[in-house]
User: Fold these one by one.
Assistant:
Number 1:
Amino acid sequence: MAKIFCVANQKGGVGKTTTAVNLAAGLAQHNQRVLLVDLDPQGNATMGAGVNKAELKTSIYEVLLGMSDVNEARKRSETGRFDVLPANRELAGAEVEMVELDNREKRLKNALAAVEAEYDFMLIDCPPALSMLTLNGLCAAHGVIIPMQCEYYALEGLSDLVNTIKKVHANLNPDLKIIGLLRVMFDPRMTLSQQVSAQLEEHFGDKVFKTIIPRNVRLAEAPSYGMPGVTFDPISKGAQAYIAFGAEMVERIKSI
Ligand code: ATP
Ligand code: MG
């Protein structure tokens, strides 16, 4: 059965999508069967996996509203060697439309259950908000991966996310836990990065992943070619870091 993880942080632009797409590709390199779930109406994970969001007949939107199923909506990322449950702007409507439906927080969970046996990992790329969509992600998952930049404001807002995760754990999904904090866009030359990184280790101990993702322009360039950085430039420092993170996750799930 698949282990399901949300990549979440309600702060925008902290590297959620880059992490979801490249971890998916990194895990595929370790021969893991992966479904990348795009839960953001921006559709960036979809595009970054090489699937054109403008040409979707069915997407996660129809799946959440019960008009289609995962089997019908999923696509293959040929560039990343994983499957994608794609999203586009339509998904923004689901936020409102789901309010009227039964079990509205668990619609993603129930939809993913049908294909759970086909994968080792499912990775859910969440939007930058603690919204009904993110709540669906948290209810479907066994754990949360929180990407963060090691900068002064990084810890601000983290408590809102941690509190939301605690509430979901208490009321809706007893399986849910924080798997770890992932340091991304790391610049070792900056003293501040080093300091914040050390603070994170001090406060969160082994909840901080060992792998650190460096700031690397190849990771930022890759999406415009519809490729994960991991396959776009496999020997770049960013790609190597995400491949190492894949290995760390394969190891980590043994103790979850
Ligand atoms: P949103 O909240 O809008 O969904 P996000 O948290 O998903 O954003 P990304 O889209 O992954 O963040 O990253 C934001 C920007 O930073 C993008 O332009 C991306 O290419 C760039 N970026 C992410 N990680 C790195 C990295 N390690 N090195 C260099 N650039 C990066
Ligand atoms: Mg994103």
Number 2:
Amino acid sequence: MTDLASRAALDLSLTPEQELVQRTARSFATDELLPKAAEIDRDARFPADAVQKLGALGFMGMLVPSEYGGAGLDAISYAIAIEEISRADASVGVIMSVQNSLVCGALVTEGDEEQKRRFLPRLASGALLGCFALSEPQAGSDASNLKCAAVRQGDHWIVNGTKNFITTGAHAGVVLLFAQTDPAARHHGITCLLVDTKQPGVIVAKQEHKLGIRGSDTTQLVFQDARVADADRLGAVGSGFKVAMKTLDSGRIGIAAQAVGIARACLEDAAAYAKQREAFGKPIAEFQAIQWKIADMSTQVDAARLLTWRAAALKDAHEPYTAEASMAKLFASDVAVRAARECVQVFGGYGYVQDFPAERHYRDAKITEIYEGTSEIQRIVIAEDTLQE
Ligand code: CAA
């Protein structure tokens, strides 16, 4: 763990490039995403237009080096952009997060030159979407307990099994599939394969109907004798679990930023409503009961953002950040859920109906405590890191 006190200075100012990312993301989110967020949620419609526009803005491959068609930005810029996008529409936020941190991220760190040239430019432009297939019906938190199997046949692998809760699974052209290639070796027997979804044997079996983030598809993928060339293996045979864990470290920064964005939406929407809604002859913002809620939300949003940016800064500095990413996600997701509850409360009865955004924030916030590692798993990661010191 990094002792912040040991650092000479804590510079929280943004670079001109990071400010530009913030302005660009904020105006895109306000102009393009916010007006459609309620409708996308109601219809559970995948926001394909928005995703294409995000690709054109460079937001689908933010951390991908420019030589592979990406924006070549840092992790702080990435956290800033995800926050802005999620403030408007948390569904778009998770689609963007999975594409950037889990799919592009794993390819940047683990891919060979040919794989990077083949996949990254299309992923970064949004022409190709990817998904990250780790979870299975019996393997969520216990992520190494995989049954999906890949058996070697000459220069190919034959894959059979089921993957659950796959974000963007129905729209992805490529799957980062974590499969068991040596069951006796448990987590040392897991291998990551890049699977083309258009080939026979890759089946979109079920699309989930969800409480929140309804614009993002969450899919069960079934693999039935799917053939994958060994050239499409990402990393060494047996290295898949570590690839997944390292990739999720970075993914947790994205989800923390998404949670900050949702919490900020709650704060801003609650504050705006409190200033115009009157009770007992004056705006409810003039009552201390409401002011305290706003004060708590405001403080918590800032604290969550600072933890998120600290994890991102450590990533940018190539320092270890596993525990810091878990702290950011643990704290920010809790803040999002609390802010959403208070936002509904400030709106009162109007918080409970679909004419106002509060109930959508309430439903969207909850998933941040579950995916990319539950809050309980984040505590395991943080405790292990803290106790080993
Ligand atoms: N970086 C690199 N290596 C790591 C690591 C990390 N962050 N964490 C663990 N490892 C390595 C360990 O060093 C160890 O290696 P060796 O055996 O070679 O020494 C190996 O992985 C196994 O470690 P553990 O014994 O700690 O593993 P475990 O089985 O106890 O599991 C866990 C640890 C933290 C609980 C892990 O299973 C976990 O993170 N579970 C949650 C899974 C998760 O986040 N799923 C999200 C699904 S994807 C998703 O949600 C995306 C989406 O759609 C939005």
